[in-house]
Amino acid sequence: MDPSSKLTYWLESAPLWKYELYSMDWDLKEELRDCLVAAAPYGGPIALLRNPWRKEKAASVRPVLDIYSASGMPLASLLWKSGPVVSLGWSAEEELLCVQEDGVVLVYGLHGDFRRHFSMGNEVLQNRVLDARIFHTEFGSGVAILTGAHRFTLSANVGDLKLRRMPEVPGLQSAPSCWTTLCQDRVAHILLAVGPDLYLLDHATCSTVTPPGLAPGVSSFLQMAVSFTYRHLALFTDTGYIWMGTASLKEKLCEFNCNIRAPPKQMVWCSRPRSKERAVVVAWEKRLMVVGDAPESIQFVLDEDSYLVPELDGVRIFSRSTHEFLHEVPVASEEIFKIASMAPGALLLEAQKEYEKESQKADEYLREIQELGQLTQAVQQCIEAAGHEHRPDMQKSLLRAASFGKCFLDRFPPDGFVRMCQDLRVLNAIRDFHIGIPLTYSQYKQLTIQVLLDRLVLRRLYPLAIQICEYLRLPEVQGVSRILAHWACYKVQQKDVSDEDVARAINQKLGDTPGVSYSDIAARAYGCGRTELAIKLLEYEPRSGEQVPLLLKMKRSKLALSKAIESGDTDLVFTVLLHLKNELNRGDFFMTLRNQPMALSLYRQFCKHQELETLKDLYNQDDNHQELGSFHIRASYAAEERIEGRVAALQTAADAFYKAKNEFAAKATEDQMRLLRLQRRLEDELGGQFLDLSLHDTVTTLILGGHNKRAEQLARDFRIPDKRLCWLKLTALADLEDWEELEKFSKSKKSPIGYLPFVEICMKQHNKYEAKKYASRVGPEQKVKALLLVGDVAQAADVAIERRNEAELSLVLSHCTGATDGATADKIQRARAQAQKK
């Protein structure tokens, strides 16, 4: 099978390819067996903790934690200064989790930067950690711990730490021979082996499980492995048998006798998505074995100590010198490259090669494909096979063949071809030795382009990430903008560059790029202890709502207040004011407000509803006697119930008005004080409710109570005009329907408001009889209107004719209706005609 750089092996009827990804360039001073090793899936980084805590090593030698790319390029190296480490593992976000013997888990970034730490609980601290596993679920990355008391504790998601203590295994006196984590029904379980028995621990129970169809004679399980998707389980027994089945332990898939009873160093699943068959890769010190359903196996001799990394579609195998990938050959690749293949894709590839040689065989191959009607299938096979190729020259050869075949098809959709070319260009870029992310096409599609970009950003490969975004034409918010924001957050951590230079460089690069938040970058700068840089970056943030909260967090409250006022957002200003109030002493707070008139005005509005005493203090400090007087007037009614307290508050208000040189307000306040005292006296003498009535209402209440003399005296005391008093009396007597008293009042003296209001009030009370009494007394100018109000249209017409007033004649004519007023209307018309003749 071609291509020549790949070694082909057969397991059952399905071929496997094993080819070199990289020639490792790392300078390992120790063997892999002497290190704690952790390799992330999806072509992720490799972590080695050199010189772990072993008895034969000198205690004075400090361990070294090294992080490499998959190609062996060094990413970070640091001396380990913390406690003994039991296990290493990578999270789904490519953070390195280091589980210490005391149960503390230290989290490091890809470049050796310390992120955080957390503890697995007091019980783990007391009993120490014997072993640990890092596992992945749909909720995130989890940690499972085996303590010295032979109890298990786990957390299914280290991002949202919730510790769960698993049930105790009855009679367990020593560490299990092997154990692993299973994920079933969205819940993490522990499967452990104790002698010939298997125990499954869930959140509440410990149950014994038996693998179906297990060969007899097993006295111990030496190794167990869960598939990449947690659906299948493999068990290695002390009899040399490997049992493979479902992770639920309800179904057996197969069993293989490897004739080796020594416990393997590693055992992992090799996923085979094409054939749906299962395969397990088992590694000893000098031997590697691939076993499946068939009785035969594939065996390799290991010249160097190697480490296995299970992947979605295969297994990565790395050693001191090489990094290889073992996977099942895809269907399209097998069809094209198998010996003497007559598959459409194989014929199309040959046709294209002959075409380049200018040979007539190209036409013969092409005609053969077309006669079978398989040209579309041939093009699709070549495109698919190109995606699974690791070597760019083979990719190009297959894509040329696909392009050649497309020329002879009328309606072949180009999208798949174009998309494959784009994907391969991205994959070839990240597979480069200096980048070191050897993703396969299947892994790339599973991972998604967004996650790949995140991983490039984690590696600080910003130019490459931006080039990929521009090449794939991703939306700016999802692509270039997001990457530039990450670059800026990294830039602010470079403390050897001045704040001015960093801020200028970030602004020149980012400008007004949509989707980039300068406030987020400033927050990162503040988190790094660069407050002045954060302030400079906030100057480029166009949204005040994003500037102000961070300025408050940085204790630059006065600057935050200025920014909030500039924004015109009153809610934002209130937020800053309340923060300032809690931060500053009272005097400094008030001085700050005096320098910001808008803020002072808003704070006064707030105090009017929430803090009246503070409002009074503000007026006192500003010597604002006018507002202080108004404040005491409101306070006299809002806070004081006793008349004495209310009068005292009004007196304070009057004094304030005099200081403000507002004599009108002062006099009005004094009049109100007199009225309050008088109302209290009236209540004491007459009973009833007088307090808090207005002056007019007080007079009206006295009249309604028949206390006319007191009402008149009150009017004289407070200088109520005669016209207003007359109106008050008229309205009150009409409401009482005291028509006799009203008539006496009308005859007592000449009415200052005339008699038309008497007519109107009587008609409002539907008393035409009384209204007619006053209609005759109405003056000539208003008599027509009065007569019309009482319904005497004829007399109104006579008066209008006598006065020769055209407006009055028109008014009377408008009131003439029907036959009853016909004579009156004719009379008015004749009068008009005579007036026109004259």
From TrEMBL:
InterPro entries: VPS16, Vps16_C, Vps16_C_sf, Vps16_N
KW Coiled coil (keyword) present: yes
Key word Membrane present: yes
GO molecular function: actin binding
Domain Vps16 C-terminal: 516-834
Membrane-topology annotation of the record: Peripheral membrane protein
GO CC, one annotated term: HOPS complex
TM segment ranges: none
Coiled-coil stretches noted in the UniProt entry, renumbered to this chain: 348-375
UniProt keyword terms in alphabetical order: Coiled coil, Endosome, Lysosome, Membrane, Protein transport, Transport
Domain of life according to the entry: Eukaryota
Alphabetical GO biological process terms: endosomal transport; intracellular protein transport; vacuole fusion, non-autophagic
Compartmental location: Late endosome membrane; Lysosome membrane
Protein family per UniProt: Belongs to the VPS16 family.
Role summary: Plays a role in vesicle-mediated protein trafficking to lysosomal compartments including the endocytic membrane transport and autophagic pathways. Believed to act as a core component of the putative HOPS and CORVET endosomal tethering complexes.
Quaternary structure (record): Core component of at least two putative endosomal tethering complexes, the homotypic fusion and vacuole protein sorting (HOPS) complex and the class C core vacuole/endosome tethering (CORVET) complex. Their common core is composed of the class C Vps proteins VPS11, VPS16, VPS18 and VPS33A, which in HOPS further associates with VPS39 and VPS41 and in CORVET with VPS8 and TGFBRAP1. Interacts with RAB5C. Interacts with STX17, MON1B. Associates with adapter protein complex 3 (AP-3) and clathrin:AP-3 complexes.
Name of this chain's protein: Vacuolar protein sorting-associated protein 16 homolog
Organism: Myotis davidii
